[in-house]
Amino acid sequence: MVVVDTNVAVVANALSKQASEDCVETCAERLEEIMRGEVKLVLDDNWQILGEYAQNLHFTGNDVGDRFLRWVLRNWRNPKRCDLIHITPIDGLENTFEEFPDDPALDDFDPDDRKFIAVAVAHSERPAILQAVDSGWWDFRDVFHRNGVTVAFICEDDIQRLREDT
Q1: What's the pLDDT score for residue 89?
Q2: β-pairing, 151-153 with 82-85?
Q3: Does 163 fall in a domain?
Q4: Is the pLDDT of residue 37 over 90?
Q5: How many domains are contained in the chain?
Q6: CA–CA dist 107, 47 (Å, integer)
Q7: Is residue 48 part of a domain?
Q8: Domain of residue 22, residue span
Q9: 66 lies in a domain?
Q10: Which end of the chain has fewer CB atoms < 10 Å from its terminal CB, N or C?
Q11: pTM of the model
């Protein structure tokens, strides 16, 4: 059971300049596992995550990330393939959720990515979040851990390389 950050599918489509070939292959493999039914996908029930997938992937494309989008659109209501989790916006704000950890150390975490954290926290099994090459998540890994959030950095070598280059 996993939550999938959008960059995993973008990388699987080979659209991320900073991702190595190994990273692209790993991202594609992880999405294929989900599409084969080996791993269950966790989404929010208000299309926050699915909407972001749709904005960054192509429904008509043939790359793995695009096929993943089509798979999600076909299976998001199938409880054998996907768990739908409710997350609660605070005061109608787009990227602020009751389920997001109330930890001042996360104040600078990217607001656009908070939905992934909120979904993982709201789920009873606290699934891992698959993360590819968004190095901004790396700085928060200890804070995530402290708050019971597991982030699986599936392209850790690429993230380390990116951090060394900056």
Answers
A1: 93
A2: unpaired
A3: no
A4: yes
A5: 1
A6: 24
A7: yes
A8: 2-126
A9: yes
A10: C
A11: 0.95
